[in-house]
């Protein structure tokens, strides 16, 4: 990754706090508004508005200052003037010197290389911050969408339970059902209302979680919407080994560790070079006789590194290299484990959703209406009606629970490989 590649993903307009115009282009609404977002719109808005990411954008800018400092010569020239007989005039007898220290071991080049590696490390860390943010947004969006569907189911169940309660109360007055049956329906109606309240609370919690990631005001209600409301599930590659290879090539946190190793290596070389003495070169002008012309010459000096040869800094940098090499191996092993875990979880969740889709969802809504019709026509008793209705409702809840697990596992896999960063369009809006 070049030192500027990440800013093709995260536009520099973020640093300027560029305002947005409307929800379609990412504008956060005024408090107490409802913001309907598709998943891509939510991801784009998070990149442009998440406060933590906006703060992290400044770290590479700070490191660019280190590069600018490294490019400069380390020492400034200095000048000295000594008057030998001030009473006769400062210029009668004097000694003047203009000199400068020079590094002779290529230290400046190593400092520049170390600073550039530090910038690559910072950009890799920023890209990884974005990877984790987009993953959190995708998970929060899937959780919100599932919560909305559960709320819709709970609300419909509450409505049907209320209507059934009215029917049964009328039948109780006419003596067609017993008090026990009427009380049973009342209990089920209360449970349905409680379930709707809980589902509403869960939906609000999911909205707040997504809104926080987007940098939205807590009073703004976030809802899923748009043509891309439901996240699309792509087909997984053939083998898990292919996924691991892509993860090793794409993961920005691993790249950041590689760059950190380079940085530590340059710094260790620099520490060794800085043990070399600097050469001081100075131009001299002296006058010992007020009647004579000044004499000019030069002076060369060199330090003698008898005691301080930068041993401590060298040992410190060597230890850091060993530490980073171990961290690199740990990161590689962690990434492999994350990919294998996400792969297996996704495969299991896909099978679970497939079973529920084939066996349940195609007939659940139709059966809900058939149950009520059968009860009205006397083909089904009240106890059987309540039992079957609850089974159908639990089946729909089971489906959305499984759907959410599948989407979260899909996000986890794309996060583990780093491919989730491809969801962010380039700054100019062109295709990647």
Give the biggest beta sheet. Answer: 4 strands, antiparallel
End-to-end Cα distance, whole Å, is: 15 Å
**Into which percent range does the helicity of residues fall?**
55-70%
The SSE string, one letter per element, is EHHHEEHHEHHEEHH
Shape assignment: elongated
- Beta fraction of the residues? 5-15%
Radius of gyration: 36 Å
The side-by-side strand order for the widest beta sheet comes to: 2-3-5-6
| Average residue-wise pLDDT | 82
Low-confidence stretches: 1-28, 427-432
Helix count, per DSSP? 9
How many β-strand stretches?
6
Structural class: alpha+beta
Q: Strands, helices and their partners?
A:
Layout lengths: L33 E4 L1 H11 L1 H6 L1 H14 L6 E6 L10 E9 L4 H67 L5 H36 L6 E4 L15 H11 L1 H22 L5 E9 L7 E8 L8 H66 L5 H36 L15
Parallel strand pairs: 1-4
Antiparallel strand pairs: 2-3, 3-5, 5-6
Helix pairs in contact: 1-4, 3-4, 4-5, 4-7, 4-9, 6-8, 7-8, 8-9
Describe this structure in words.
The protein has 432 residues and is of the alpha+beta class. It is built from nine helices and six strands, in the order E-H-H-H-E-E-H-H-E-H-H-E-E-H-H. A four-stranded antiparallel sheet has the order 2-3-5-6, with no helix packed on it. It has a two-stranded parallel sheet with strand order 1-4. A hairpin with a 7-residue loop joins strand 5 (279-287) and strand 6. It starts with 33 loop residues before the first strand and ends in a 15-residue tail after the last helix. The model is unreliable at 1-28 and 427-432 (pLDDT under 50).
């Amino acid at each position: 990754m070049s030192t500027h590649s990440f800013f093709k993903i995260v536009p520099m307009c973020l640093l300027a706090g560029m305002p947005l115009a409307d929800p379609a282009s990412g504008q956060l609404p005024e408090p107490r508004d409802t913001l309907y977002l598709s998943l891509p719109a939510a991801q784009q808005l998070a990149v442009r508005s998440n406060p933590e990411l906006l703060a992290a954008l400044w770290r590479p800018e700070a490191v660019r200052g280190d590069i600018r400092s490294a490019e400069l010569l380390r020492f400034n020239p200095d000048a000295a003037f000594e008057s030998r007989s001030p009473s006769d005039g400062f210029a009668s007898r004097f000694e003047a010197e203009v000199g400068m220290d020079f590094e002779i071991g290529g230290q400046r080049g190593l400092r520049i290389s170390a600073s550039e590696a530090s910038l690559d490390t910072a950009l890799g860390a920023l890209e990884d911050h974005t990877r984790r943010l987009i993953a959190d947004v995708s998970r929060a969006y899937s959780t919100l969408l599932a919560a909305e569907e559960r709320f819709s189911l709970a609300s419909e169940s509450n409505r049907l339970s209320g209507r059934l309660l009215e029917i049964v109360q009328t039948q109780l007055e006419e003596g067609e059902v017993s008090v026990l049956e009427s009380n049973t329906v009342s209990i089920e109606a209360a449970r349905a209302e409680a379930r709707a309240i809980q589902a509403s609370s869960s939906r609000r919690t999911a909205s707040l979680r997504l809104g926080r990631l987007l940098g939205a005001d807590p009073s703004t209600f976030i809802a899923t919407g748009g043509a891309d409301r439901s996240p699309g599930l792509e087909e997984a590659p053939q083998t898990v080994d292919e996924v691991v290879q892509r993860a090793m090539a794409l993961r920005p946190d691993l790249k950041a560790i590689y760059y950190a190793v380079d940085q530590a290596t340059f710094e260790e070389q620099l520490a060794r070079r800085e043990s070399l003495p600097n050469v001081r070169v100075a131009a001299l002008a002296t006058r010992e006789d007020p009647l004579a012309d000044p004499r000019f010459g030069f002076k060369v000096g060199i330090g003698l590194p008898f005691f301080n040869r930068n041993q401590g800094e060298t040992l410190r940098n060597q230890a850091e290299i060993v530490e980073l090499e171990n961290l690199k191996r740990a990161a590689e092993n962690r990434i492999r484990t994350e990919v294998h875990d996400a792969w297996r979880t996704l495969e299991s969740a896909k099978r679970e959703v497939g079973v529920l889709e084939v066996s349940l969802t195609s007939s659940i809504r139709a059966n809900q209406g058939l149950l009520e019709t059968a009860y009205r026509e006397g083909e089904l008793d009240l106890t059987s009606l309540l039992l079957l209705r609850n089974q159908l409702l639990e089946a729909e809840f089971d489906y959305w629970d499984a759907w959410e697990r599948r989407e979260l596992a899909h996000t986890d896999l794309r996060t583990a490989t780093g491919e989730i960063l491809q969801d962010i369009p380039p700054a100019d809006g062109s295709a990647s």
